[in-house]
Amino acid sequence: MDKYINRIKKSIEQYRNQIINHKVYSAINDIQDLNIFMQYHVFAVWDFMSLLKSLQNNLTCVTVPWFPKGSADTRFLINEIVVGEESDVDSFGVRKSHFEIYLDAMNQSGADTLQINQFLNVLKERKNLQEAYTLANVPSEAIKFIDFTFKIIESQKDYLLSSIFTFGREDLIPDMFISIVNDLSKDFPDKISIFKYYLERHIEVDGDHHSHLAIQMTSNLCGENEQFWKEAEEAVIEALITRIELWDGAYKSIISQKK
After folding, report:
1. Distance between CA atoms of 174 and 37, rounded to whole angstroms?
2. pLDDT tens digits, residue range 100-132?
3. Contact at 8 Å (CB) between 54 and 161?
4. Fewer beta carbons below 10 Å: N end or C end of the chain?
């Protein structure tokens, strides 16, 4: 499987570099800038959880009566990731999902959570993404990002879900951004501590342990099927492009606020 994994890594390198070296990071100079970034990023954090749960729904039996479904090895991989993402511990030792920790970080730093909360409330009530986008006035870049993910979810192709989960989401936090947050944390520890913890936890859990599990899961699902790997490569590239565009939106909003 290594040849397929390496082929994808090589083909997406330029897009990953664009994300890691995006100008949005250098535009973040104070808490206000960081808050705007978080108001965009939070949609990707929520979107990630939806992608994760779609994989669990498809690869394991989540209905009653229970029956064995698929490969036990693949079931283990996705369930192990879900445990860490959906029921991790926050900086106070309280069980929370990474998304809930992120919302806590936004509340602590003073970022506006009205938009993401309104989006989720409307979506929960009406089960309609378009209505939720409109009523919550979600940024167009976030809409495009979420729409792409749900297009992949609706395809019911588990190997594509796993591929964009593995190569389109993990290990995309640059050292420069971590350094910026660390500097802000020194000056405003009571406003940035939760976000700093979130980043550290993300790197520790997602970027290390979970990334290995996810690569194995994608390998299991794609197998030796050349067509699956080709489709996976194309999907990952598109996922990374939508992430770049999401960062473009955050950058424009930060610069606009400065002017």
Report:
1. 14
2. 999 999 999 999 999 999 999 999 999 999 999
3. yes
4. C
